[in-house]
Structure formats: structure tokens, C-alpha cells
Amino acid sequence: MEAIYIPQLAKAPEQTETVDIQDYLPGLETLTPVQGQVRVVHRGNYLEVSGQAETIVTLTCDRCLQQYNHRLALEASELIWLEEEVEETDETLAEREVAFADLVENLSPNGYFHPGEWLYEQLCLEIPQRQLCSQQCSGIQPQDDQTTSPLVDRRWASLEALKGNLLN
């Protein structure tokens, strides 16, 4: 998936570029190729990015450890500000105060936007944190073996014999 050069996007018709996706994304293991579309609009000092995509991933149930398939469906939008990165004046500072405005995504106005990376990040955010194969999953069930005798650690055999002698 090709990166979009931001100054070239500003000169595109309607300052918009749409990327159709039907491919596997590097770093994201999926059963089917990611199918969807990412639309990037240059709005002067920010990019308006929106996308729809879907794919199927294999997850492991947190309760029973069985693998199951899960459909990821994504419909996301994000504003990415275009501004030059401010250089740090004192790199020896271990702590620095972060302004609320610094907590938003930003890119250089003369840089590139990578739709594949953006889509990868959005799909990773869609993976459920609590992975259950079904709501009725009861987890791993212990086996009830009434026929087996309790296991005795042979290292305690001498102490068990001494205990038997003291009680008699």
C-alpha cells in the first residue's frame, strides 16, 4: 500500500484521495485479506481520515483456550493535524509537561500519510480485549477422577511413617 505525499494531496482534485484495500496487512495475522477503503481529505491544516474495512482473525478464548474466528468490522474516522514537530531544547530532561494539544496525532505538512499503518492501528484497536468464544463458555472443566488414589509424595514417606508410630 503506497504512502500518500501530503503536499501532492493538497493539489489533488477536491483535495481527496481514496485508497481501496484488498490485501493482507503486515503484522496483522488474518484469515482473509483486509477488504475496505480509506479516504483522506486535505483540509488545510489537518487531514480528515475515514475508513471502512473488515476481515476475519483467529483468537484464543481466555476461558477455555480454544481458538475461534472473529470478524473485525471497522468504521472509523480521525483528524490528523499537520504541523512541524517541535525540536526538544533540553534532551536531559527526564520529565516534561505535556500540553493537551500534544496528545493528538500530527504529521509534518511536507511528509507522508501511510494508509496501511493507519488501518493496521485501527483494526488492532477493534480486537476485543476480553476474548471469549461465546458468552456461554464455561472455561476449562476439571476432570473428576474418583477411582485414582491421592498422590503421595515419596519424600514425605518417612515423616508419614513416624506420624503413624506416634499415633499408635
Tell me what you see in this structure.
This protein has about 170 residues and is α+β, with helices and mostly antiparallel strands. It has one domain (about 5-85, about 100-135). Helices cover about 15% and strands about 30% of the residues. The protein has 3 helices and 7 strands; from the N terminus they run E-H-E-E-E-E-E-E-H-H. The protein has helices spanning about 5-10, 115-125, 155-165; strands spanning about 5, 15-25, 35-40, 45-60, 65-80, 105, 110-115. The strands form 2 sheets. The chain has a 5-stranded mixed beta sheet with strand order 2-3-4-5-6. A two-stranded antiparallel ribbon has the order 1-7. A hairpin with a 3-residue loop joins strand 3 and strand 4 (about 45-60). The chain starts with a strand and ends with a helix.
